[in-house]
């Protein structure tokens, strides 16, 4: 029998960094209200001697962490944040951002990662370090050397103005953040996304949100749904339906892709230079990277 208890409710941490609240896992949580309840109970479980670092820009997290025993420290773009981010730029293929600490001191940090969301995540870590007396100049050096983790805008190919990246994004909000990050890092390139939806329930619930978030790319290929082992096949939703609905809403750059051969057919219609290709999803979409790379190597 599947254990459906929220996995983070089984943890007993002393310190928590809360970056964002987005409704998800709709097969387990019937509504956003139900998921908020679980979050609130989790925050309330942190002891009085603990610390919760909260994204001040997220109104839901602010509310859910307002009645807790633990100490609260905030970060974000908001002027009310204890650690305020007030500049995020892209310089020499790196993300450079400046923050002001709650003591009023200003620091500038450098990341080898893409996107505003990673600068904010790093700020949360910086806040934690500062709260416990770590040298922020050493933190800057550590962050500048951090090369990221697998499946988070992981670079696979960079040659002749073609880059291929892979990302785990599988929720509309994550997709938006990821495409925005790529657009910022490669402002003069077209973006082609090969997306593999994850679970029937998520695809069905967020169908139109997926269309809106994916439409931020210039070319969108959609693979068949990668199902979860805990769910039954749902024939009322499919990747083909997603592309049909996208077309009905005026987005003509969505293509349903069934197999490797159709990936190559789709790629023939995208630019062969000044292009960022992004494989995206929580399933095994990354296995398509070799096909994509071979295609562009054959067209050099």
UniProtKB/TrEMBL annotation:
Highest rank taxon of the organism: Bacteria
Family annotation (SUPFAM superfamilies): MurD-like peptide ligases, catalytic domain, MurD-like peptide ligases, peptide-binding domain
Domain Mur ligase C-terminal: 151-283
Pfam families according to UniProt: Mur_ligase_C, Mur_ligase_M
UniProt xrefs under InterPro entries: Mur-like_cat_sf, Mur_ligase_C, Mur_ligase_C_dom_sf, Mur_ligase_cen, MurCDEF_pg_biosynth
Spans traversing the lipid bilayer: none
GO molecular function, one term: ATP binding
Residues annotated as domain Mur ligase central: 10-128
Name the UniProt record assigns to this protein: UDP-N-acetylmuramate--L-alanine ligase
Highest classification ranks of the organism: Bacteria, Candidatus Roizmaniibacteriota
């Amino acid at each position: 029998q599947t254990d459906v208890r929220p996995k983070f409710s089984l943890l007993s941490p002393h310190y928590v960094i809360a970056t964002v609240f987005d409704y998800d896992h709709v097969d387990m949580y019937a509504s956003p209200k139900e998921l908020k309840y679980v979050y609130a109970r989790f925050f309330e479980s942190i002891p009085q001697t603990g610390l919760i670092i909260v994204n001040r820009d997220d109104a839901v997290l602010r509310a859910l962490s307002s009645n807790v025993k633990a100490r609260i420290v905030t970060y974000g773009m908001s002027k009310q944040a204890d650690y305020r981010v007030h500049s995020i730029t892209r310089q020499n293929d790196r993300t450079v951002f400046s923050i002001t600490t709650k003591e009023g001191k200003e620091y500038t940090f450098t990341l080898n990662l893409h996107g505003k969301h990673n600068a904010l995540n790093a700020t949360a870590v910086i806040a934690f370090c500062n709260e416990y007396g770590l040298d922020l100049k050493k933190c800057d050096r550590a962050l500048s050397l951090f090369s990221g983790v697998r499946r988070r805008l992981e670079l696979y190919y960079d040659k002749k103005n073609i880059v291929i990246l892979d990302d785990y994004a599988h929720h509309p909000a994550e997709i938006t953040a990821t495409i925005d990050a790529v657009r910022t890092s490669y402002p003069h390139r077209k973006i082609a996304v090969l997306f593999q939806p994850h679970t029937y329930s998520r695809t069905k619930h967020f169908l139109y949100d997926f269309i809106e978030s994916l439409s931020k790319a210039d070319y969108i290929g959609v693979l068949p749904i990668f199902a979860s082992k805990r769910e039954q096949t749902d024939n009322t939703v499919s990747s083909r339906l997603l592309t049909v609905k996208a077309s009905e809403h005026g987005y003509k750059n969505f293509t349903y892709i069934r197999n490797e051969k159709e990936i190559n057919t789709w790629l023939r219609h995208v630019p062969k230079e000044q292009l960022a290709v992004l494989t995206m999803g929580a399933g095994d979409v990354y296995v398509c990277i070799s096909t994509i790379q071979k295609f562009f190597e054959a067209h050099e």
